């Protein structure tokens, strides 16, 4: 391994060694989210991941300890939700950051995440595009994955791994 792939592997391995990794898996009824997406995609293009960024950013503002970074031995609570978005590349994975996501509309998040994804795939991300995240979202649902154990980005408080959406009977 060399280059970006080597750095990514080293950072992920360091994260596994230096932080408590825990996975909690649950299912959620996302019927309302699928209905909202079906309705709003007539107005603009966005993904379920964009919806997650929008929701998580607002939740982080309600739970400041989850919206923080480890700074040496100190916990630094962030004033805004800088949500990382895991983007798969041919040679690894990179996490650009949607800054101040709590103050952006779903449309603005969709535009920004699409731009960051395109920059990532074309190798045009800058250092400021991939630093300063407080929380990351990674979505493997597109590849049919139901559940997985995402690796926490060093310094961040949490990572949300999202699996696929499937229709199934539910009893309430």
Structure description:
The protein has 172 residues and is α/β, with parallel strands linked by helices. Helix content is 33%, strand content 17%. It contains four helices and eight strands. It has helices at 3-18, 31-40, 48-62, 106-121, and strands spanning 68-71, 74-77, 83-85, 87-89, 92-94, 97-98, 135-139, 158-162. The chain has a four-stranded mixed β-sheet with strand order 6-3-7-8, with helices on one face. It has a two-stranded antiparallel sheet with strand order 1-2. A two-stranded antiparallel ribbon has the order 4-5. Helix 3 packs across helix 4 (106-121). The longest helix has 16 residues, at 3-18. The protein is globular. The model has no long low-confidence stretch (mean pLDDT 91).
Characteristics:
172 residues, alpha/beta, four-stranded mixed beta sheet, globular
Spell the H/E element sequence.
HHHEEEEEEHEE
* Count of individual beta strands: 8
Residues in β-strands, percent: 15-25%
Biggest sheet features: 4 strands, mixed
Q: What class do helices, strands and sheet pairing give?
A: alpha/beta
Give the neighbour order of strands across the main sheet: 6-3-7-8
- Counting DSSP H or I runs of 4 or more residues, the number of helices is 4
């Amino acid at each position: 391994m060399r280059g970006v792939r080597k750095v990514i592997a080293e950072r992920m391995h360091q994260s596994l060694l230096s932080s408590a990794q825990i996975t909690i898996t649950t299912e959620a009824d996302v019927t309302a989210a699928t209905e909202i997406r079906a309705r709003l995609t007539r107005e603009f293009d966005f993904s379920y991941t964009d919806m997650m960024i929008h929701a998580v950013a607002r939740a982080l503002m309600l739970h400041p300890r989850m919206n923080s970074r480890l700074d040496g031995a100190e916990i630094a609570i962030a004033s805004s939700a800088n949500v990382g978005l895991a983007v798969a590349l041919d040679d690894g994975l990179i996490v650009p950051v949607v800054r101040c996501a709590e103050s952006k509309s779903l449309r603005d998040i969709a535009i920004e995440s699409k731009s960051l994804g395109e920059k990532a795939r074309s190798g045009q991300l800058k250092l400021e595009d991939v630093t300063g995240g407080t929380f990351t979202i990674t979505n493997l649902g597109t590849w049919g994955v139901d559940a997985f154990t995402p690796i926490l980005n060093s310094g961040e408080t949490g990572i949300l791994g999202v699996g696929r959406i499937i229709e199934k009977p539910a009893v309430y």
